[in-house]
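Bench notes, afternoon.
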Amino acid sequence: MSTPLTIYRPGLAVGRDAQVLHRAASPEFFGWLEHTRPAGGCARPIRLTGTIAAVDRNTGRITGHLHTDELPDRTLYKACGNRRESVCPDCAWVYRGDAYQLTRSGLTGGKGVPASVGRHPVVFATFTAPSFGPAHHRHIPRHTCRNRQRCDCRPAPCRARSTAGTCPHGQPAACFARHDANDPRLGQPLCLDCYDHDHQVVWNYFSGELWRRTKQAIERHLAALSRQRSIPKVRIVTALGKVRWVPPVRVSHGKVAEMQRRAAVHFHVLLRLDGVDPDDPDALVPPPAGITVDDLDAAVHYAASRITVTTPPHPDQPDGWLIAWGAQVDVRRINSTDGELTDDKVAAYLAKYATKATEATGHSSARLTPATVDDYADPEGDHVARLIDACWHLGRPAHADMASGAATADDRQGSLDAKPKIYGGLRRWAHMLGFGGHFLTKARRYSVTFALLRDTRATYRREEDDQPADTMTVGTLTYIGAGWLTEGDALLANTAARQRRESRRIGREELAHEAWLVGAAA
């Protein structure tokens, strides 16, 4: 028997209050609530119209047919699925859970990944961007706190320099402040005119290529070690009957990009050592005994210190820009004796950053166009405004460059289609401050995929709704809009979603408690 929905939300506006009462008083209220359940909690659900057919998997015969005009609100609601917490907290919560499972299964097994991967050597590496100019930062030279998440240690002075003086633009070249964690000056350049904004956005843009070459260098370094230690290559016969000899060890990774406050990207990477099975090349087997976690640690430092990328020539930089990692490359062991880094902590840490983008910089916008870029870009503005302007200026169309290589006066209204071959993508990713990669990537063999997790969840929901296993749903649907029809509908659907989620959480805790009691009694 259905129970009335209870809403605790004082101070509602009169219009929204009336919308809630009107919807809740309708005879179809509980049917509407069940209809919106797939999108409940979503900030801006997708509204679709069209037909939905039930098809027998074995015969292909249509066993049922429904048009969305027969549904509440004459539309089908679907969650937007946006991963960014600042855009849709509910869909980001689901994405974060999937990211956690994806990352953790590569460390401990599960979800189709063998549990034996938990015994493979793994390191957690952080690759940072170099300096593009002095900026305010917070540094704690020695931690005395027990909980880093609630750290109250005293930071060191930001940039204490006794003989720094001023920069060529008259700005102080030193900062003696001990910045709090929420200080708005953190990440801001000491002098905006001294800071190399062009180089930073180009670094963000080419950071994916830098990581690709670094991963290759790590694997080549380990392959060279294998040869030195007389560990033979593995003979593999392809499906076409060709014989290949491959190194006996390979590296699988899971990577998350984090946008720092200074708007430069750095990467948190899990690197796992795997072996190669000649009979089943796709199998996850331990690496040879001659290659250890110490070798993986050394390979990461070796590659990070030597790999660089020189970008193609640009009219503003004929020799291109040098793309390299910063001096701070941190490599740490997981599940070591100190217990600071565990599988669960690392997976949760990476999943958290998978739902973020440029929020740490104070900037958040949709993709910029010639009509909207002037709202954000300013060559004389603050740090982020100058970065966006650098993206737009460096990614200008090729016809904007004169024969001498200099740019014409102001080409912001130029066509987005007439792009230079290499740097044109900077305009496409100006809203991301030059970074055009995905914030969570992994090697194919590292663990499961998002698609598998979503399919598993969809199968569970079909079983929960008692849908026959031999029946599939085929929709011919058209997009008609986004968002709830009224603010009252949004409040009702989101409140119901929160209540269902809380009920599931309590249920899981009760089951875990009962299992603990049974184990204690045994």
